[in-house]
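Thread title: Can someone regenerate the structure for this chain?

I was given the following input by a collaborator and told the matching structure tokens would be attached. They weren't. Posting the sequence so someone can regenerate them.
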Amino acid sequence: MPFRSTPLSNYPVLHSRDPEFARERLFTVFGATRFDIPAGQENFEVRANHLQIGGVGLSYCGCAGAASLEFGEASFVRQIFNISGTGRYEAGDASGEISPGSWSSILPAHTPVKLDVKPGYRQLEVRIELDTLRRCLGALLGQEITGKLEFQHTSYTPAMTSLRRRVFLFAAEYNERGAYFSDLVTAEVERMLVMNFLMCHRHNYTHLLLRQPLPSALSAVRAVEACRRSSAGCP
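Best answer:
Regenerated them for you:
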């Protein structure tokens, strides 16, 4: 299977037709605990790229043949965005089919993940450390997050369509120009992606993120109006 231009091509991790070499790299870099392909499969080729920015990881993977993978418990949540091909995922109570252009539910932290893919499968996966999510959520709310952060089932909503588009745009832009970003800019783009993730998914803190702003005090409104009317401006 000839691979087209791939996301995160400037951050290669693996490109091989050797199943044993692919298994070693998948175990070492991506934390896989199992990697199997059907006996006698001849058309094997896998390509994987990975970008890590602080607590955020983006991983591309494409597989010419069928494969079955498992990953152990990890400190991050993850979400799969399908590019082509079909597969199926399982992670605790979350499971489902992955069809072209779709995405998985959020696969929770500290939970083993199983992924079975058919030939021609390609995906882009977002990984975000749970501590990073909690820290950014606390910054958005102006309070420390002491309770659990629990995500709801992911559905086909305009917000999720928007998040998918932003994830792929982020991957493309960082792949092209990320090597030239300063540390400050890199930290800012990481923060923006995490905050988009928190805003587009529904979770047990969403109602606080979407609450209406408090009304302005009457005295403040009068002061603003007085400034507008005064030719001399505010003291």
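Residues 216-235 have pLDDT under 50 and may be disordered.
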